[in-house]
Fold this sequence. Notes:
Layout: H1 16-24, E1 37-45, H2 50-60, H3 67-80, E2 87-92, H4 94-99, H5 111-115, H6 121-124, H7 134-137, E3 142-148, H8 151-163, E4 169-178, E5 180-181, E6 187-188, H9 204-213, E7 231-232, E8 243-254, H10 256-269, H11 279-285, H12 326-330, H13 335-344, H14 348-352, E9 357-358, E10 361-363, E11 368-370, E12 376-379, E13 388-395, H15 399-410, E14 435-438, E15 446-449, E16 455-465, H16 468-472
Antiparallel strand pairs: 1-3, 1-4, 2-3, 5-6, 7-8, 8-13, 8-16, 9-13, 10-13, 11-12, 14-15
The chain binds protoporphyrin IX containing FE.
Amino acid sequence: MPIDLGAALAWEKASADEKRMLEDLQGNILKGHGREHTQNIFFHIDAKESAEGRNFIRSISGWVKSGYRQLDEAKKYRLYRQDAGAFVGLMLSASGYAALGIPDDQIPADEAFRSGLKKRQDLLNDPKVKAWDEGFQAEIHGMILIGGLDESQVRKTRRNILKIKPESVTILGVETGLAMKNKNGDGIEHFGYVDGRSQPLLLVEDINREATDNGGIDIWDPTFPLKQVLVPCPGGLLKELSFGSYFVFRKLEQNVKGFKDKEAAIADEFGLSGDEEELAGALIVGRFEDGTPVILQKTDKLIDPVPNNFDFSGDTQGNKCPFHSHIRKTNPRGDSVREFGATFGVTLEAERSHIMARRGITYGARNTKIDADGQIIELKDKPIGGVGLLFMAYQSDIANQFEFTQVSWANSPQFVKDDAGIDPVIGQGQNPTSQQQPVKWGEEAKKTIDFQGFVSMKGGEYFFAPSISFLKNL
Ligand code: HEM
């Protein structure tokens, strides 16, 4: 095998085979494209006109940015501020492959992918499809992802792409992403918390930077092998060098007022004030708004750089960072080995196999106070809807990564201990379940809270991001 999927990749020292692999792989998979303005365009292909559909996709493939080009351009941007233009990615759903008339042996095999997100509703405890936004209720065959430096770059790229769209391809909906940054320049989500800090790092250059400049990697090692996100692309033309990645898209609406009111009520109930007022939310998310991990201290401002080199081994009772907190649920950093290793043989490698590469972006406009650099100093309004997260994640196995995280960790009140409760941010429980919050940070006594229901799923789909040679050869 010319590509070692069992290790991270040093792209700047890529061998000839690795470079060819990266040139055939879509960008955004091994590292985020980094653009702050995006659009996701969802489309349907008339199966009776599959040749037109294939022609359309083949034409778009010229815009699709390869992993190699993305990395090379990002390096030049860092060095010379040279704008690399828009990012374009293209994904197909299983029904999309079928509508294009692709033979079965060229359709990615993942079972969850083949069944599609709509059929996983019971497993995931998702709302009924009838309650999803209208565009998502139809059969979605594909998605074009455009990222740009500004809105006009995205719109211009979209216009050019849609100019060549035949009538037999219908646009079902467009989601517009708009990143938000706090005054430290860190990305935030609509509840106000730094997001996107903890990622599996798949490139040796990123891992080295994390080790030397970003807080170290000796406690939590963010190094992940390529196989975390890559699988061979059936139908790719480069023998043993064509890869793709499964891609989960979910539109998650956030009720900011509900979340913030509940946070304030809990701060009151637990008598948190002054420096500790922010603790209520930090115990829910696992990090303070500025990114400070609550496992490390009971106040914020540990942000330069925002730490990620930590685990929960010193907090086996959830006295500092509760078991239900969003980041402890979605990355237990060894908790499940300690709790289930002896009885069920859970290893750190098995636990880490569930991690995915998150590439989400916030959507919806907010009333903000900004500084001279345009960074957000204050989120002034508290919308109850119309804002949220376009959750996107790449992985090599949807059941073992996204679905396992959502179902067996976030939605399960018994993970990682019997009375942990569901994830208060994304947990979707059948019955309300309460969580155990420490009465005082670092102390054993707990009090029950009931925190959930502020994120609603509005629709989505499972996709595959095929190799560029597959797209070009359609
Ligand atoms: C509107 C919905 C969501 C919000 C507001 C949200 C918010 C956050 C925040 C604030 C962080 C901390 C920043 C960081 O460590 O990178 C985080 C981390 C994370 N989230 Fe979410 N998230 C949402 C949806 C999801 C979903 C659907 C999943 C997966 C099923 C997920 C999985 C993760 C993971 C794996 C981490 C990193 C944990 C770590 O490695 O420490 N999130 N999220």
